[in-house]
Specification:
single chain; mainly alpha; 2 domains; two-stranded antiparallel ribbon; 2 strands; 74% helix; 2% strand
Length: 199
């Protein structure tokens, strides 16, 4: 179990998980963006830029809500694994930065005219989504940590109650036990059930 957790906490594994879930959510939600390109850009480059843009660009209010909901969902993965808002935020920003980086690089290189025309709009969207991801990462990690601590405290209290209930004492020699044995290992006398329960 510990080995599995160590593997899951590796950044590359988390990135693959987040990227896969995000792609799946966008596919299921049939989410697309319609980007304009300069004349002469080949189809393969259009496809790659459109795919990257689909991960980070929104064109309507509905798109904004849906895309942010998808990002918030995948942002829960590092929050659940780390339960540390700094690590969760760092991981989520890394995952968000990678498609943004390649989108801006490819779009500016292969479609410079339309990139210049829409750069301010796209960059503003990146800033807004980045701030939302940061806020959600911090909040979700802190809430999950609080829930974990609550259940851990409750479990400890219950465990202490159980431990107190199973403690017993030999009525003959006074030896204390962390259980309810049938025979006292100190004086070797048999401890009757009713005596053990009473003790």
């Amino acid at each position: 179990m510990n080995k599995l957790r160590v593997i899951l906490e590796k950044k590359i594994v988390i990135f693959i998980m987040q990227f896969s879930f995000l792609s799946l959510l966008l596919q299921v939600g049939d989410y697309h963006v319609n980007l304009l390109f300069d004349e002469g850009i080949i189809e393969v480059r259009r496809t790659i830029i459109s795919f990257l843009g689909r991960l980070i660009i929104y064109q309507t209010h509905h798109d904004f809500l849906f895309l942010n909901a998808c990002w918030m969902f995948i942002s829960l993965i590092p929050s659940l694994l780390y339960l540390d808002y700094k690590k969760a935020t760092s991981m989520n920003l890394t995952t968000f930065f990678i498609p943004n980086f390649f989108f801006y690089i490819f779009f500016s290189r292969y479609s410079p005219d339309y990139f210049s025309m829409y750069f301010t709009k796209f960059f503003l969207q990146t800033i807004i989504m980045g701030l939302i991801i940061i806020s959600f990462s911090i909040a979700s990690a802190l809430v999950l940590l609080k829930i974990k601590n609550f259940f851990a405290t409750t479990w400890r209290k219950e465990a202490n109650k159980v431990e107190l209930n199973i403690q017993s004492k030999c009525p003959y020699c006074g030896t204390e036990f962390q259980s309810m044995p049938k025979i006292c290992y100190n004086c070797s006398k048999e401890l009757k059930e009713e005596v053990r329960e009473h003790e």
